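Recall the central idea of this unit: under ordinary conditions, the amino acid sequence of a chain determines the structure it adopts. In this exercise we apply that idea directly, starting from the sequence alone.
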Amino acid sequence: MATAAATGIHLHDLPEPILTHIFSLVCDVRSRNAMSLACRRWRTLERATRSSLVLRGHVRSPFLLPTCFPAVAHLDLSLLSPWGHHPFLLHHQQPPPQPPPPPQYYHDNLAEQAALVAARLAQTFPCVSSLAIYARDPSVVAALAPRWPGLCAVRFVRWHQRPPALPLGADLAPLLAACPALSTLDLSQFYCWTEDVPQALQDHPVAAASLTRLDLLCPASTEGFCSSKLADIAAACPNLTHLLVPCVFNPRCIEFVGDDALLMLAAGCPRLSLLHLVDPSTLSPARSDSEANEDAAVTGPGLEELFAKLPQLEDLALDLCHNVRDAGPSLEMLSYKCPKIKSLKLGQFHGVCKGGWLHLDGVSVCGRLESLCIKNSADLIDASLVTIARGCRRLSRLEIHGCHKVTEAGLKKLSSILRSTLVDVAISGCQLLDAARSLRALEPIRDRIERLHIDCIWVLPELDQLPQTPETTADDSDVDQVDEEMSDESRTKKSRYSDGNDGSDESSSFWFRTWASLRCLSLWVPAGEVLTPLGDAGLESCPQLEGISIKVEGDCRTCPRPRQGVFGLSFLARYPRLVKMKLDCGEAIGYALTAPTGHMDLSLWERFYLHGISDLRLYELDYWPPQDREVNQRSLSLPATGLIQECLSLRKLFIHGTTHEHFMRFFLMMPVLRDVQLREDYYPAPENDMSTEMRVDSCGRFEEALNTRLIPD
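Accordingly, the structure predicted from this sequence is:
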């Protein structure tokens, strides 16, 4: 700054092309907004170079659309308010004249509004090549798609039920007919029937042939694609490079997916570089830890043939709910047949890596892997992890789920070997790893790890009495050198935190160790548990932690009243940089109405989970209220509203459920709150507005009151 002041040279003096290129490299929305406030020239450049825009308001009048962003290429209309309703309703529906008009009256009125808004959008954003839209019915797509015939990427969103009267493929037909050059189609948040997609692709062969990326992994759908439908997709889209699809792997079902179907898919789409084939049950937000009793029709020799036909494969996910036996030899062939493989996810695979000798076997032969996820592998042991660490030295992300023979010792040896690369770890559903053991196992990378997921299972005292067996204990000779390098550091830190007693154990010093690089933390919490033991488990200090995701799951109806009166959100106040939180209680089940004697209803459980949120300086909060499945209700209660309102630093608030209008009025007393929205993004989203819930008019009144307030900053 002193040099610039002395020479009189300023960043503002850079030539226009250079400054424009600098602005185009900035992607963070908040940073771009701050840059636009520097001066008028910077504001003009920021608007001229912004390529992505998410519209959040209600399109009540076309003249309210911003006209100062001509270079926008990605336009997101999926979050228009009120969420989930028709995006082209310019005004609230007035009572019909007397006598009541025919249904065609409403259809023509909506069509005129849709044409008006679509024309205005195309005029305002002429360069759109990527579009996201909440398409509750085909009329939305039919109005927008012809305005941008050069669309390359489209993402549909729909959590409401599919209109039953629609013919097969009607949801996608307007898009495929108007955009023949479409290359990316994302239906991962769009509920439709499995018969819709193949039918639409077959009816529009030109657009289907141009597709290179197709994502069909929607958690709302409980049905997968059978072998014939998978073959239809492969025949219609021969140029696919990315394919994500749920499949029927259950051998008891008709037209299940087995070796023949996989080979047919590989023959039809030989250019695939990303292939995710998963069982539909694995997409459910609720955790399932049940063990498989049947074998899948996917075999090792079949997988070897599949890999031989896909030499460009870089990312592979095979997440099944049925056993795949003796997968080790086929995984060894994966390294030779697919030399570019970097990411691998395996579910219900046996023999992934035996680790019985010093030589590498199974998945450990894939030395180029950077991401590895192993789920429900019954024979994965500590020696397997050590062998994987020896062979896959580039691993930066590791996830293990439901591997019940893995212990703290094996995971610690793995993290020691991969200390220089491993920065993202997820540990869940492992019977021998509670929270404290998981954190102690990651001690070698404590100063390097950036993303972490653990289960908040606090006490497993029975593990201390388990005998050490060859299956659960790895050979220390594999990591002797690594342990020697870390011994000096461990002794130094132990003496630093010890109280001077020579007999103090290592756990007493572990409490106050710092996770210096941890920026994102994810926690799974059983219903009725609390967060307060998190510090004693080892997460006392996280100076760089910016975001936390907490998922509460379980049946609150069978839980006793918590011994402690609060969940423990105030404990998170010790993380100074924590500004974003996702609190997901959507899979916590309880009584929405009157609870039986001795039980707590959902409003009391919400008070339990949200107590202490006022102690946090949050900038953004996503909250999923608990639910009562018997009445399909996920509604924000009055105690929850009052507790959230006490978090005065909130700028963005997203409630993934419903509530009452007079409850929403509490949020108007939060001084800096700027962005609030109700999102029923779960299946099935409520079709009709209930008599006392937020309706279109209610959302409009609340938004007007929110937008007319003066924001201090």
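The two ends are 27 Å apart (CA to CA).
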